[in-house]
Amino acid sequence: MRVNMIAIVMEKICFVVCQYGDDVNGGAEVHCKMLAERLSSYYKVDIITTKIINYHTFEEYYTTSHEIINDINVFRFSTMPFDAELHNQWRKRTKWPRKFRRTLFRVGLLRPIAKIFPIWNFGVGKEIEMVKTHGFYSADLLTYLRDHKDDYKAIIFMTYYWSHTIFGSMIAPEKSILIPTAHNESDLFRPIQTHVFTKVKHIAFNTEEEQKLAENIFGSKMSDHSIVAVGVEMNADIPSKEELYEKFSLPEMYILYFGRISHSKNVDTLIAWFIDYKRKYPSELKLVLTGRLFQDKIDHPDVMYTGFVTEGEKLGLIKHAKLVVNPSKHESLSLLLLEAMKLGKTVLVNGRSEVMKAHCIKSGFAADYYLSKRDFENKMQQYVFGDKAINGDNDKAIAYVTQYYDWDVIINRLKNIISCM
User: Fold this and answer.
1) Same structural domain for residues 211 and 248?
2) CA atoms of 198 and 42, how far apart (whole Å)
């Protein structure tokens, strides 16, 4: 008896992202990795990325052009030489169009104007030249994407800001999905972004706040869009408390920040405020900073740096912290916040971030926010030493993440979008 076997050929998709790998700890890049690995059960997934990790020096970190990570093909490309002075000159030359658009936004006129004039060309020529001077710009990456665009059912671009998104999304906009990870910053108002946000096939936002921001900038002619978000991974093996404390020489009491240690994440302000807080309220409490350093190191006996850590070590550091803090003003989701809440930890965040403030409110204040230095100090006292128990909102925090950031729901949303390509 002869049996005919029909091979099922999986459709191919790709993610285009500035950095990718086990050595990368940026929010959007980890976001990309989690989505790619989850979708690999349904599609053949490629990653198109650069060889860079340090987004200040833009020196090549990876030496190979191809590797396989967790059964996913990763194609890495070299970038153009970076000249910081030249790039800053181009940023100055291109500031007026974005400043004008941002002013219109602030007075509430940009959305109605965008309904009539959805695409702006004023200043775009100079912006193109500016983007080409950025350290992540890779002509080879874009050539590869142009040559292989027909191989993919969908091309998913991570973060609106980078050159691979601005130029790459215009190569095959009819099959391009943008995950913008946007927040209210000047580059979102560049005229060149009106081309990206109106021409891609679909835009997948992380939160209602991010979606509303984009609607108020790009108006009703913005591409089809929805909220997709991302789930939270808790699968790594967590070292014992003794192992962690020995390896990192941890103090018994510490608060934790993890992620990129950089000015863009407002970490310098967190350090300064924490040092002042310790002067005002002396104790054994320390600030532990986990992640790669992208700013000048501030040496102080109350501030500790662990460097890059494994996923399991990160979760262990969260688990044993007295409090987790996210000082960033600009977040489109905040995996830091969600991961800590999933572990039942109280998180104190910068209330200037509308996204993180909304997480606090929607969760019934399973997390909390501060709006000033005095507010930060008072809430530090309340949560670390006061009568507000650190783990008092465990169930509420866990329930919030479980309800709104379930992986099955999120992957089905993205699969439905891909099926329409």
Assistant:
1) no
2) 28
Whether 158 contacts 28, CB under 8 Å: yes
> Mean per-residue pLDDT for 399-413?
93
Spell out the residues 6+ positions from residue 67 whose beta carbon is closer than 8 angstroms to its own.
74, 76
Residue 285, domain extent: 241-404
Q: Are 71 and 36 in contact (CB under 8 A)?
A: no
- Same domain, residue pair 219 and 292: no
pLDDT tens readout for residues 247-278: 999 999 999 999 888 888 999 999 999 999 99
Residue 236 covered by a domain: no
Q: Is the pLDDT of residue 323 over 80?
A: yes
Q: Give the pLDDT of residue 388.
A: 62
- For residues 72 and 172, membership in a common domain is answered with yes
State the average pLDDT over residues 390-394: 57
Task: Supply the mean pLDDT for the chain.
Answer: 93
Residues 6+ away with beta carbon under 8 Å from 86: 133
Instruction: List, in order, residues 6 or more apart from 280 with CB less than 8 Å away.
Output: 377
0.85 surpassed by pTM: yes
N- to C-terminal Cα distance for the chain? Answer: 41
57 within 8 A of 68, measured Cβ to Cβ: no
68 forms beta bridges with 73
Q: Where residue 361 sits, what CATH number does that domain have? A: 3.40.50.2000
Count of structural domains within the chain: 2
